[in-house]
Amino acid sequence: MNKLVYADNAATTKVSESVLNAMLPYFSENYGNASSLYPHGQNSKKAINAARVPIAQLINADPSEIFFTGSGTESDNMVIRGVLNSVAAKNKGRNHVITTKIEHPAILRTCEAMAKQGFEITYLNVDSNGVISLEELENAITEKTALISIMAANNEIGSIQPLKEIGEIAKKHNVLFHTDAVQALGHMHIDVQEMNISLMSLSAHKIHGPKGVGAIYIKKNVFPDPIITGGGQERNRRSGTENVPGIVGFGQAAQDMIDHMEEDNAHTAKLSKRLMEGLLEIKKSVLTGHPTNRLPGTCSFAFEAIEGESMILMLGMKGICASTGSACSTGSLDPSHVLMAIGLTHQNAHGSLRLSISKYTTEEDVEYIIESVKEVVAKLRAMSPVWHE
Ligand SMILES: Cc1ncc(COP(=O)(O)O)c(C=O)c1O
User: Fold this and answer.
1) Residue nearest to atom 15 of ligand 1 (CA)
2) How far is ligand 1, taken at its centre, from the CA of residue 267, in Å?
């Protein structure tokens, strides 16, 4: 089996050739430490600063508001821990965070850790499309609320949140607004000024950049406590010798998005439409997440009487890389918290399938996926004791 049809771009993406080429000289030629004063080091510093520019442009921020981290997970940790621990929050007795039930574990597990330390966390519900209620959000705000942390778009079902309206509520109540835009960057309109966003988490490897490089947008005059202290790199926000090749790669990936955003998103949206139409021909199948207001490349389904893990393994044997929010694959006995939050039954949630496509996905790939999923679902149902037409 040599065929590889990669449809798990929400998990990670292939590093593009332009990104790889941009990174290479920073391993072998321009390897100076960005903190060194001689020109060899200053070249690295210049490259880091240049990388901030396209990332800032993608979200309408100032380059000085972009700070590099080691991952999207680290950025999320920095926001939750850093804001709650910041002197500003403590002085005002602000010990409360409002988030949602469908956040990535980087937010949820960090909130749980902070709750153990005595901080208060409110988890907002979402409707069956995976979208929060603005009324519930506004009602949850108290004078102790330090932060609203709501993801821009969900990693499992692709649903997009009403960022502008959330930003208005945050502004009205003078609360910081953070959004985890790791999945959203370059795939939807994000404008930190128009949306009143104070903090944002980003990650390179979801946009054809390298793994292990993240960024955090921090609005001017916002000061979360650093969670990694040391030599004071990244203007004292995140210590540790900078990953120069990784940062350069992130910058190039962002530039590529700026240059080709419209055509790439139109391409993935067109293929997604075909994929959804094709797979929804399967009996007792549903599209999970918002029917229209969703990321262009993230397609998520649930098939009745199917075991998600078995589906992934059988698709894997056909060379297709996909993912499921079903139990064992995520190492827990419960099905995905996201699918539970949108009201799927346990049985349906166990038959979930996420296919996330990219600019590299072709029409032939999509036809092959449709044909293969239909075949696998039919085979599994034929063996299933619970399936009846
Ligand atoms: C919404 C969301 N937030 C955070 C992360 C974590 O990012 P990273 O893999 O860079 O740690 C992911 C990765 O899957 C994600 O999808």
Assistant:
1) 182
2) 23
Instruction: Look up the CATH number of domain 17-256.
Output: 3.40.640.10
What's the CA-to-centroid distance between 72 and ligand 1, angstroms? 5
- Give every CB contact of residue 99 below 8 A, 6+ residues apart in sequence: 107, 108, 111, 121, 122, 123, 124, 148, 149, 150
Which of the pair, 92 or 199, is modelled with greater confidence?
199
CA of 196 to the centre of ligand 1 (A): 22
- Confidence band of 287 (pLDDT split at 50, 70, 90): very high
Predicted local confidence at residue 318, as pLDDT: 97
**Residue owning tokens 């039930």:** 101
Higher-pLDDT residue of 347 and 376 is: 376
Specify the ligand 1 atom closest to the Cα of 73. Answer: 11
Q: For the chain, give every domain's residue range.
A: 5-12+261-383, 17-256
Q: Could you give the 3-state DSSP secondary structure of residue 18?
A: helix
The answer to whether 295 and 325 have CB atoms below 8 angstroms apart is no
Decide if pLDDT at 334 tops 80. Answer: no
From residue 356, alpha-carbon distances to 11, 118, 158, 318 in Å are 8, 38, 9, 17
104 CA from centroid of ligand 1 (Å): 7
In the predicted model, is pLDDT for residue 2 greater than 90?
no
Would the pLDDT of 163 be above 80? Answer: yes
Judge whether residue 87 has pLDDT over 90: no
Is residue 183 in contact with ligand 1, taking CB distance under 6 Å? yes
Four-point Cα dihedral 268, 260, 220, 93, nearest 10? 10
Give the residue, by CA position, lying nearest to ligand 1 atom 16: 155
Tell whether the model's pLDDT for residue 332 goes beyond 70: no
The reply to whether 5-12+261-383 and 17-256 are identical in fold is no
With a 6 Å cutoff on the Cβ, whether 180 touches ligand 1 is yes
Residue to substitute in 203, 211, 295 for testing ligand 1 pocket (most ligand atoms within 8 angstroms of CB): 203
Any ligand 1 atom below 6 A from CB of 348: no
Residues 183, 184, 186, 188, CA torsion sign: positive
List the residue whose alpha carbon is closest to atom 5 of ligand 1.
72
CATH topology (fold) of 5-12+261-383: Aspartate Aminotransferase, domain 1 (3.90.1150)
